Amino acid sequence: MSRIGKLPIPLPQGVKVKLEEASVHVEGAKGKLDLRVDPSMAVEVADGKVVVRRKDDSRRSRGVHGLTRKLLANMIEGVSRGFARTLEINGVGYRAEVKGNLIHLTLGFSHPIAFQLPAGVTAKVDKQTVITLEGVDRQILGETAAMIRELRPPEPYKGKGVKYAEETIRRKAGKAAGAAGGG
Description:
This protein is α+β, with helices and mostly antiparallel strands and 183 residues long. It has helices at residues 59-80, 138-151, 175-180, and strands at residues 9-10, 16-19, 23-27, 32-36, 41-46, 49-54, 83-90, 95-99, 102-106, 113-116, 121-126, 130-135, 161-164.
């Protein structure tokens, strides 16, 4: 039995789960999300909890059991509390500003970059160097953060670029440090 898959998901106050044949609809204070459930999974709602069960013990259903439960748990958490991801911009002259659904980034290129936010993701910029992305869908939020980071990934010599707030950049010694060691 899947250790993750067998755990029941508690339903917070104000979250509604609606089951259909092959999909689950979750609605809460922050928004709505839908998930197509694998045919080998059965989803049940009882006593304020959501339980995911396997219909058989095939290799595929065992593999999808924990995944389905975690996707549902992320949906329930997203519509009740939401998710946030923070990015930091390091570098002289590097900055960001939000205008509506666009993030204007100056990242050391010859031109500024206008990044279009997908539907369901909002952004706030603090001190022109800290971008906070918020949304209800964890997958779209993570993909958006990865796309922004990919515009100028942090480099190991000076640490310039866009990085996640919790990420640490392993710094390398430059040419001068290697030559000073003697040779």
